[in-house]
What we know:
The strands form 4 sheets. This protein has a 9-stranded antiparallel β-sheet, with no helix packed on it. It is α+β, with helices and mostly antiparallel strands and 637 residues long. It folds into 2 domains: 94-359, Distorted Sandwich (Beta-galactosidase, Chain A, domain 5); 365-607, no CATH class. The protein has 18 helices and 21 strands. Helix 11 (435-449) packs antiparallel against helix 18. Helices cover 43% and strands 24% of the residues.
Amino acid sequence: xxxxxxxxxxxxxxxxxxxxxxxxxxxxxxxxxxxxxxxxxxxxxxxxxxxxxxxxxxxxxxxxxxxxxxxxxxxxxxxxxxxxxxxxxxxxxxxxxxxxxxxxxxxxxxxxxxxxxxxxxxxxxxxxxxxxxxxxxxxxxxxxxxxxxxxxxxxxxxxxxxxxxxxxxxxxxxxxxxxxxxxxxxxxxxxxxxxxxxxxxxxxxxxxxxxxxxxxxxxxxxxxxxxxxxxxxxxxxxxxxxxxxxxxxxxxxxxxxxxxxxxxxxxxxxxxxxxxxxxxxxxxxxxxxxxxxxxxxxxxxxxxxxxxxxxxxxxxxxxxxxxxxxxxxxxxxxxxxxxxxxxxxxxxxxxxxxxxxxxxxxxxxxxxxxxxxxxxxxxxxxxxxxxxxxxxxxxxxxxxxxxxxxxxxxxxxxxxxxxxxxxxxxxxxxxxxxxxxxxxxxxxxxxxxxxxxxxxxxxxxxxxxxxxxxxxxxxxxxxxxxxxxxxxxxxxxxxxxxxxxxxxxxxxxxxxxxxxxxxxxxxxxxxxxxxxxxxxxxxxxxxxxxxxxxxxxxxxxxxxxxxxxxxxxxxxxxxxxxxxxxxxxxxxxxxxxxxxxxxxxxxxxxxxxxxxxxxxxxxxxxxxxxxxxxxxxxxxx
Length: 637
């Protein structure tokens, strides 16, 4: 090693030594660094201890409680939230959007809808009707940073950026911005239109591709809600509280309303609804939810909530901000006309079909409600304000519509009744052991006089769809909610005239702790009507097994009393009126139809030599008899 090399290394060593001395930290700086290192270690220890805890904010507050400096707080936030650390700390503030129907409260914490009140409705105990408030509802999006930090929007504080009212159309807007450590951000923008239950909601990003992992094109979204009990009858209300969802292809499905239920839906959904008997919160994705995990939980009887709903969905998201993620939220009543109007002038593949939130029944029952019952109800509502009177008029109108079928049924019964002497003569002439010959002779008699046994049954069967349609219509009609009539305070709930607090096994779970007056009246007139029908059909008593059928005719109304005691007073009132009018019609028929004259007409047909055309039913019945006789002869051989 030469002299120049030795001098060079010596100079370099002196420079490093001098630099180390000049940059050596002071005692205060050493203490501050030690405190920082201890705090970071404490953060890591807390994170390990609370790894199973889902509330990220609670974890953070626990950690920050053990620290004292702003530097440490920033370090903790940066470690837990990454580029979202600038939004990790803040103060919760509330904002309001309001029109003539809704009062909506928003919070900057999570940038979410905090509470929803329907201004034109009250609870059964006259309190403001609030769909949810505070932690009863949650909406959160899972955000992932490029350095693998996973945070929830519910734990971050947004900045209010827009609160305006457009003079031209009256629309109100409220915006929240989620900032990051860079010039990237996410905006949540809410829009409320006058005289509308629909809230617009859109998500717009700006340069979030610099924050989030490469290739991000969707977000995981969590929406949860506890459904409050709003009506007087908890059991009845719970039957109609359910989670529903609509596929992008058009089908509407639901989870069980009577038990805990869960569903993994891999297909694209258009909307998800958290439904009560008369009110719903519906989240509508314009581009659809790519997939969803749905869960419905029944709350205990002692709870003030009916159900707990949760949905975990995947939604489209553009981090660059070239396109927005658009939603709508329906927060309002399950009223058929309002829900159906959202589909006006829309092509069939774009219709929301929110009207299916109103349970009108499937198949023909739903069609009868949509195209017969609801139009009649709406027309009468335009001119009459008393819904008890409207139900009365609806009953009369429906009775007039089905009057021809009722008349035909009674005439068939009358013909069978006046032929009783001939039937008795056949039974006396042919012993009971020859049942086939008895039946053949009876059918020949009916064929000669032009009577079909089925002519009395078919009209009654044709009336059943209307009765079942009404069974679906009244409990689903929010128009009857809190409407008074006579002693009834609410036609959409039971009309208790006597109540008790003692729990009675097998009675309270099904019958309830009350007695409904219209249900009692319905039962009484049904028993009377059944007794009247039994008296008008003397031939029935001679048939095998009719003794048991007679007992069933009196037992069934008692069973229905237990079933309908919790149902809407409007429904039992309708059944009471309908049965009462049926009794009146029966007495009217008895007065106006001369059975002696009818008997003479039937005998004239019997003795007439003119060949009578057989009904298709009689032809099929005779064919069956011939085949049965042939089979019996073959067995004897």
